[in-house]
Amino acid sequence: MSGVAGDATIAAIASPVGRGAVSLIRVSGADAFGVVDKVWRGAQSVAEIPARRATLGRIVRADGSETLIDQVLLTRFDGPASFTGENVVEIAGHGGVLVTQRLLEALLEAGAKAAGPGEFSQRAFVNGKLDLTQAEAVMDLIEAQTDLALRAAHQQLDGGLGSRITAMQDDLLGVLAHVEAYIDFPDEDIDPDTRSALISRIDRLRDTTSGLLETHERGRILRHGLRLVFAGAPNVGKSSLLNVLLGYDRAIVSDVAGTTRDTVEEVVNLGGVPVRLIDTAGLRSSGDEIEHEGIQRTGKALASADLVVELLDGSVPLSEQERVQVPESVKHHLVALNKSDLGVADGWDAFGEDAVRISCTEVDGVEPLIAAIKREVTTSASALDATPVAINARHRDCLQLVSSELASARALIDLGEEPEFVAEHLRAALNAAGEVVGKLDAEDVLGKIFSSFCIGK
Ligand SMILES: Nc1nc2c(c(=O)[nH]1)N(C=O)[C@@H](CNc1ccc(C(=O)N[C@@H](CCC(=O)O)C(=O)O)cc1)CN2
Ligand SMILES: Nc1nc2c(ncn2[C@@H]2O[C@H](COP(=O)(O)OP(=O)(O)OP(=O)(O)O)[C@@H](O)[C@H]2O)c(=O)[nH]1
Ligand SMILES: [Mg+2]
């Protein structure tokens, strides 16, 4: 995929195949109108139709046979005023799997090239219609599983992150220009006033950077879900609890201890926060090879958990139960005592209000447990209103580099080092900030990002 403006005209099915009443095919490229004209039969040619007006006509094969494929609505967008910035034609067909496939084939026969994954968005990016954070937001939007995640994606698509980075680049450029001015006059040292002014400008930039970095945790949770792990001894009811929270029988439940082997994951929406519920194999020492592997996986799930719900069987005395070793990295830990329908055995009073009593079979006490989970969850993912930004892992990597380069630049100014050395770090910081929005020439980086998109995007 080269993705350079003015390249071949590309075509792809933009709607899910076979599931809609209407399917959408997009064609983009300098010769999009000419290519589509070969298969379009209407009162006017594509170039004569008023731009952006859906027009009824027919699509036929391009092999000269005039074989009818579908009656369609066609819309023309004149570059640069289009999604990709190129000439674009959209064809809305009847939505069947075969019809849609034949429409695309006719366009390929007419000279279009099948678009690769993300190629439309990549062209929009190359033509300056979207910066990289906005292109990524398109994907976040498609994959969003809750309204809160959707809102974060829309904010990023609206340039919420891009505009902050651009402002940061402007500031950085100002500081760099200032420092570079000294390079041209080697006899002049940076005077103390200028030095302290530069330092405070750099410090402000570092504050902005760390403010953005702090939004990564929220971004990770909104994109991938907060990781909630159910852990406990075999048979305490972890899989039962998963099923109760999901509202359907996702995991196998049985009175055989050691039923769950592999971890089972499903995402639910808790107060707008996507929560990935992870059911695990019950913890005990086991000679069974497969169960042992399952328990290893439980360990891994615990290590990457945001919240652990430790499940215990409240109908069995506390002294007879193994507690879960919750790793220190886990920020939130709740205890739930299951099987309350069987009564409460000795020793559990010690937990008092710290443990929620539930019954999975009677579906009792589940609401208070959900409320307790929600309280933990919102502290992890809230504050989207205060800073409407939620950066992803790629942004975080770039910004960490910005941060460390700024720290180096500041340290060198403090030491009274030559401006050349200071400028070098500022330039590195500027490049790293540029990478966030896609001001980079490394084609491979772009290819990697856009190829994770779906075809037709
Ligand atoms: N039919 C259709 N629906 C769609 C899309 C599409 O490509 N086609 N989109 C694809 O993701 C999204 C909408 N995104 C779009 C963004 C910009 C332009 C566009 O034509 N921009 C021009 C003109 C702007 C204007 O009229 O205000 C431009 O930016 O110059 C079109 C779609 C969602 N719905
Ligand atoms: N009486 C009673 N039985 C329950 C309750 N919750 C689960 N059980 C029963 O306890 C047994 C074990 O339940 P599971 O959900 O499979 O337990 P688990 O913790 O997933 O067990 P492993 O996968 O083996 O680690 C099943 O027979 C369930 O029906 C409850 O609230 N009350
Ligand atoms: Mg289980």
UniProtKB/TrEMBL annotation:
InterPro entries (alphabetical): G_TrmE, GTP-bd, GTP-bd_TrmE_N, GTPase_MnmE, MnmE_dom2, MnmE_helical, P-loop_NTPase, Small_GTP-bd
Stated role: Exhibits a very high intrinsic GTPase hydrolysis rate. Involved in the addition of a carboxymethylaminomethyl (cmnm) group at the wobble position (U34) of certain tRNAs, forming tRNA-cmnm(5)s(2)U34.
GO biological process: tRNA methylation; tRNA wobble uridine modification
Main location: cytoplasm
Cofactor note: Binds 1 potassium ion per subunit.
Keyword list, A-Z: Cytoplasm, GTP-binding, Hydrolase, Magnesium, Metal-binding, Nucleotide-binding, Potassium, tRNA processing
One MF annotation (Gene Ontology) recorded for this entry: metal ion binding
Cross-referenced Pfam families: MMR_HSR1 (PF01926), MnmE_helical (PF12631), TrmE_N (PF10396)
Nucleotide-binding is among the record's keywords: yes
Binding residues for K(+): 235, 254, 256, 259
Binding site for GTP: 235-240, 254-260, 279-282
Keyword Ion transport: no
Residues binding Mg(2+), per UniProt: 239, 260
Cofactor: K(+)
Subunit structure: Homodimer. Heterotetramer of two MnmE and two MnmG subunits.
Family: Belongs to the TRAFAC class TrmE-Era-EngA-EngB-Septin-like GTPase superfamily. TrmE GTPase family.
First-tier enzyme category under EC: hydrolase
Binding residue positions for (6S)-5-formyl-5,6,7,8-tetrahydrofolate: 26, 90, 129, 457
Species assigned in the record: Sulfuriroseicoccus oceanibius
Gene assigned in the entry: mnmE
Protein name according to UniProt: tRNA modification GTPase MnmE
Subcellular location: Cytoplasm
